[in-house]
Amino acid sequence: MLQSKLFYKSSREKSSDTESVSHDLLTRAGFVDQLSAGVYTFLPLGLKVIQKIEAIVRKNMQDSPVSSQELLMPVLHPKDNWEKTGRWETLDILFKLKGAGDKEFALGPTHEEVVSPLAKKMILSYKDLPYSIFQIQTKFRNELRAKSGILRTREFLMKDLYSFHTNQEDLDIYYAKVAKTYKNIFNQLGIGKQTYETLASGGSFSKYSHEFQTVTSAGEDIIYVCKKCRFAINKEIKTDDSECPNCKTGDYEEKKAVEVGNIFKLGTKYSLPFDLKFKDKDGSDKDVIMGCFGLGISRAMGAIVEVNHDDRGVIWPRNVAPFMVHIIEIKGKSKVNTTAKKIYQDLQKKDVEVLYDDRQDKSAGEKFADADLIGIPYRIVVSDKTLEKNSVEVKERSKNQVKLVKISQLAKFLKL
What we know:
Layout: H1 21-28, E1 32-36, E2 39-42, H2 44-62, E3 69-70, E4 76-78, H3 79-85, H4 87-90, E5 95-98, E6 104-107, H5 112-122, E7 131-140, E8 155-165, H6 168-188, E9 195-201, E10 208-215, E11 221-226, E12 232-234, E13 252-267, E14 277-279, E15 285-287, E16 289-296, H7 297-307, E17 309-310, E18 313-314, E19 325-329, H8 334-349, E20 354-357, H9 364-374, E21 378-382, H10 384-387, E22 391-396, E23 402-406, H11 410-413
Parallel strand pairs: 3-7, 9-12, 19-20, 19-21
Antiparallel strand pairs: 1-2, 4-6, 5-6, 7-8, 8-16, 9-10, 10-13, 11-12, 11-13, 13-16, 14-15, 17-18, 21-22, 22-23
């Protein structure tokens, strides 16, 4: 991608109305644009990151041991479905609207009211179970106060997975598999070391649920992390004498965090309202047992930036970076332009994603500042000085060291 053609604008000045590091950097670097409170456009740079996150999540959901199938459910939900579960009047974050003929709808904040009657059409016998389905889709929640950029919004991307089982034991086994897979996902996203599996209230579903909380000063939750095993407890359920449910010690460290994922054992909470049953081996009708597993796609993007940045800008982990290489051409003799273009073309032929700063109206300092702000893993500088040694200057965004690399050895150096 030629940077002169990229649909973005960057800013060196920190905005006075940003509430988190990710909000500030993603806005200034041209990844997102705020339309209104809690509503954002993902610009080309931001969309590329979102797509990388989606790809990681999607692969982990489809692969064993989770082995889930992807579908896409509607955003527009009939009022009747929400009345059956009692949440039309009790869920205060619902966006409600009227359609033709005064029919009422909700914009989906979650999909239990849609997936349960859908599953009823597919499940007849114990032979149909277990199975799971997931989607990656836009959700709408009428948050009282949207804040911290894309960490808390009114419109956001989420992966939600629903599983269906004949009994509690089968759900428990699957629940553990998804929890382990979530840890793998957060490792792949570059936030695994800062993300803790956290025991939380199960609400009306079960006694407990589990959240995945990423530590950041912008977080709204308080968690207590076990110093011995890294398991955590949400403040809402911790008592003074609580011992770690994982290793049975009680030495905790208090941290602020943002929830990037959660998993629930729904039981029959949403089976009963829709009469979701299966015929068991003995011929009797039994209620389907359900599980729910959510992961915030756009929120994860914000959490990645909260964890991976410095005072100059974002430091994208390789797996989710919008580009792998950022070529910067420093104005000089004609050979500089010719060489920079050739490196750009050669890397593209190797299927390397490259952003090429070909802008002629920017100084070297401005280009370097933009590169640090955007945060692509590798910066390659082509200049008269480097070409005197048939080399380019290479710097990893996560490191301070700059290396002079022979152009002929560049692909090897980048491990391509």
